[in-house]
Amino acid sequence: MRDALRGLLSFAAILLVLLAALKLLNWAPTVLDPGGLREYPNVPAVRAALQVQDLLVPSYFPEQVRWPPRRILAQSKPYPAMAVTYDGTHQEETVLHTTQAASAEFAPETGIAPTTLRETVPYDLNGREAILEVGVCSNGAPCSRLTWQQDRYWIKVEMVSSPFELIKIAQSMRP
Amino acid sequence: MNLFDFLNSYAGMYLVQSFVHSLITAIVVDRAINAWRIVNPLVIQRFRLLVILLPVLSFPLFQWMHPERGAVDFRLRALFDSARWLNLELFGALSVHLLFVGLLLIAGLVFLVQELIPLVRHTFLSKRSAVPRTPADEHAHVARALEDLPGEKPAVYLMDDDAFTVLSTTGSDSAIFLSTGLLEVLSPSQLQAAIAHEMAHIQRSKRPLLVIVYLFRILMFLNPVVLLEFRRIAQEEENICDDMAVSMTRNPRALADTLRNVYGTQRDPAPAGRGKLAAVNEALEDYSHRLLIEKRINRLTEARSDGAPKRGRLGWVLTAAAVSVINYFVV
Fold it and tell me: Distance between CA atoms of A137 and A94, rounded to whole angstroms?
């Protein structure tokens, strides 16, 4: 019995050491190379840290969207990318999400993507070809998405609302 | 598709994660064997099989459970995200993902050269030219050794060869082969121990689990951790067969003496004209082989073959569960 207990404690200690080592190994690359994906407090911090100046930020926000954003994720390697999540003014839930990446592969989970599409139409966004999708989120709320390519980036804006506010936000996006 | 995109595809993630999962499993299993103080080779082998079996299944199972495991959000919350290391460039030029792919290719090459090609060649040659053999039943020592051993008796053949050779073939036509040179140096009890050890191999080869493990090992042919662990499993198989032989003969010293006689003799010098590198390689292989044989002899003479398999079951379940949970959060 004593041997079994000693074995159990020893095994638990091994697991704790392993977990700590994995945490350390997961953190080490962020020191060795700050260009990896991580969270930033604001957009100027992203521009300064990653030396990427052409990041688009909306200048128009409807009343229902809270400023500042809840989360900003960004990376410069293997390709520049930024994902910004905004909560609602009166709720702790994502209502707006913008993604800008130099690869179509970058697709963070937003939780507000239309799960049932009702309409997909081409849209002229400041002279660029965009795709507007209107549908319903997984919770049944109306949501919409606008995607387009600008210079080297794939840009995606998703919002829990009708497309009118979404288009205004997308039109206001500037470096 | 470039290399980086490939590593982010389903097949690439499978390669990367099965490597990391097998590395974590190997570390935990190794430490668990110490923590639970397991000495029984059968239980040790059962633990080591986790390193081969779990990483083959873990990635597809985890992806099925949570298809968004590869997505940014899961990676940010993960215990360890391999992509962080694979994206790194050491000293501004050396890509870690290139080093990683190089490591996998070396493991694949070792598998090809040291395992697959010799196996295919052996199968091909044994089909083309049957080994000249004569039934050994009439040899007094062999007949006596077989008579005293319990269980189903395989066919035993003699090969006219001065080298000290004892081996067995498995499958439907399983048999034991002894060289005439070996018959001359082994005492009756040592001969019995050698035959008992080969009988153990034949009995063990009928277990479907070992066949499944070998198939899984082939699937993971690019994984260097699996390559090393499979060799350790093969070494443990020798210990298991030693224990089975001792349980048949009740004479561990005879088996230890047999090992000394068969493997303790001088090897033929390397043929002239062989490269320096090949000679070093051969010397290293010879040295490591001798170390393993010494370990087996010490184990037999120190009578450490009796373990406590009961405790191993709880430890095995805990180890498998801990490794599975940790690996779920390693992407």
Answer: 12
Amino acid, single-letter form, for residue B146: L
d(CA B41, CA B306): 9
User: ipTM more than 0.90?
Assistant: no
CB B142 within 8 A of CB B131: no
> Which tokens belong to A31?
């020191």
Looking only at Cα atoms, what is the longest distance across chain B? 73
Alpha carbon of residue B130 to chain centroid: 27
CA proximity to B80, closest of A108, A22, A19: A22
Q: The pTM is what?
A: 0.80
Separation CA B24–CA A18 (nearest Å): 8
Distance from CA of B60 to the nearest CA of A (A): 20
Residues forming a β-bridge with B127: none
Q: Taken in order B276, B278, B279, B285, is the CA torsion positive or negative? A: positive
Asked if B315 lies within 8 A of A19 by C-beta distance, the reply is no
B59 closest CA partner among B219, B232, B230, B231: B219
Using DSSP, state whether B262 is helix, strand or coil.
Answer: helix
Give the pLDDT confidence of A148-165 residue by residue, as tens digits: 998 889 999 999 888 888
* Inter-CA distances, A11 with A18, B70, B137, B308, Å: 11, 30, 52, 17
Q: Which residues contact B80 (CB under 8 A, 6 or more apart)?
A: A22, A23, A25, A26, B20, B329, B330, B331
Encoding tokens for residue B311? 């405790």
What is the domain count for chain B?
1
Cβ distance B8 to A105 less than 8 Å, yes or no, reads yes
* A127-150 tens-digit pLDDT: 889 999 998 888 888 899 999 998
Domain containing B186 equals: 3-328
What does the alpha-carbon distance between residue B188 and residue B182 come to, in Å, rounded to a whole number? 11
Beta strands in A10-168 (DSSP E): 38-40, 71-75, 81-87, 94-101, 116-125, 128-136, 142-150, 153-159
Chain A residues lying within 8 Å of B24, measured CB to CB:
18, 22
| Record: contact B35-A107, CB cut-off 8 A | no
